[in-house]
Specification:
The chain has one domain (about 10-325). It is built from 12 helices and 8 strands. It has helices at about 10-15, 35-45, 60-65, 65-70, 75-90, 95-110, 115-135, 145-155, 200-215, 225-235, 265-270, 305-320; strands spanning about 160-165, 185-190, 220, 240, 245-255, 255-260, 275-285, 285-290.
Length: about 375
């Protein structure tokens, strides 16, 4: 520590304290609201996100989760350090190596990338550490390429509601940051980000999520029971972020195997006559890019099932380009052990699952993820 401040190596070491949980913005459950309740929910969602200072925490956690300290290290240097730490974890941590191998086997088995499982597992471990390093920095992305810009323009200037559909791949929290030139306001459904930040790591993660939402004009609404609210927003022509690919009751052929997943984006788009804009967030060294695909129009698909299958095909192609960037499907809040090389089955609902609102003990395991 120099001059009372930790040096780069010390900040990097402190980052081992917590490897981010991920709590997906999932498929939206249906819950009927009476008109007054629905109007209140919408009124709250339309308010800009308020200031949310980081809550207190133990000193080591404060240092590891300080955006200000993170910015003292150039982004390129921080990513290079994170890559080195991930590579070390692969060599020195048998438990993390085994977890990464299981994750990649579940993702690429049955696909043309299956023979690369071991190499992809090592890369997967590295990507998890890099994503954590990027989380605590400003969520800045590069300008989209010409093809993606045209897709953004087609969807976001169409005058119709738009569902921004991303998978949990790469630094996905940053995806909405690319929408600003066409839509100054984007709505996101979330559960964990709406909880009150409390003492410790998890509370600081919530506060940082809200701060970044405020900085980019994002509006947050609680995902639980928000189907009616999202439907209304889409009918009004708003853009809403809803993540693709979480456990559900819809059998889908995905990544070369049967996967039980949700189909909420297709259901919402069909009901609201809204476009679905598939997006993905990927990194190239220390730079983060957001790609967009051709908007999917429910008018051009026979029914909701065909629309869901078309959306799954887009995300599958993208995931197979960078399989290692996809989060472990067996993380808490996702398939929780139900994702194997043969199929991905829904977790047993009878089993108790961790709440996204619960602060989780900081883990020293480099690749241990839970809820976003």
């Amino acid at each position: 520590m120099r001059g009372g401040q930790p040096c780069a190596a010390e900040i990097d070491e402190l980052a081992d304290l917590a490897v981010q949980p991920s709590c997906p913005q999932a498929d939206i459950p249906v819950m009927a609201h009476d008109p007054e309740e629905l109007e209140a929910l919408l009124a709250a969602a339309r308010q800009p996100v308020g200031r949310c200072p980081l809550p207190r925490a133990e000193l080591r956690v404060r240092l590891a989760t300080s955006p200000w300290l993170r910015r003292l290290i150039p982004r390129a240097g921080a990513v290079a350090r994170a890559e080195g730490k991930g590579a070390q974890a692969w060599e020195r941590d048998p438990q993390e190596r085994a977890r990464a191998l299981l994750a990649m086997d579940a993702i690429v088995a049955g696909t043309p990338r299956a023979r690369e499982t071991e190499a992809l597992a090592r890369e997967h471990l590295v990507e998890g550490v890099v994503k954590e390093a990027l989380y605590w920095r400003p969520w800045r992305v590069e300008r989209p390429d010409a093809s993606s810009e045209e897709c953004f323009r087609q969807a976001l200037l169409s005058g119709r509601g738009v569902i921004l559909s991303a998978s949990h791949s790469g630094p996905y929290n940053m995806g909405v940051s690319a929408v600003g030139p066409w839509r100054p306001v984007v709505y996101s459904a979330s559960g964990w980000a709406m909880t009150e930040p409390e003492f410790g790591y998890w509370g600081r993660r919530i506060a940082h999520r809200r701060s970044q939402a405020r900085a980019r004009g994002e509006r947050l609404l609680h995902s639980v029971g928000s189907f009616d609210a999202i439907l209304r927003l889409l009918e009004e022509g708003q853009a809403v972020s809803v993540f693709f690919g979480l456990p559900g009751s819809r059998a889908t052929h995905f990544l070369g195997k049967p996967v039980m997943m949700t189909a909420g984006s297709a259901r919402l788009a069909t009901a609201a006559d809204a476009l679905i804009l598939p997006i993905r967030t990927r990194r190239d060294a220390h730079r983060v890019h957001v790609d967009a695909s051709t908007p999917l129009d429910p008018r051009e698909h026979a029914d909701m099932d065909r629309l869901h299958e078309a959306l799954a095909a887009v995300h599958e192609d993208w995931i197979l380009e960078f399989p290692a960037a996809l989060e472990d499907p067996n993380r808490p809040g996702a398939w929780e052990g139900g994702a194997t090389a043969q199929s991905w089955r829904r977790p047993d609902s009878k089993h108790e699952r961790p709440s996204p609102a619960e602060p989780r003990a900081a883990s020293k395991k480099v690749g241990a993820t839970s809820r976003r």
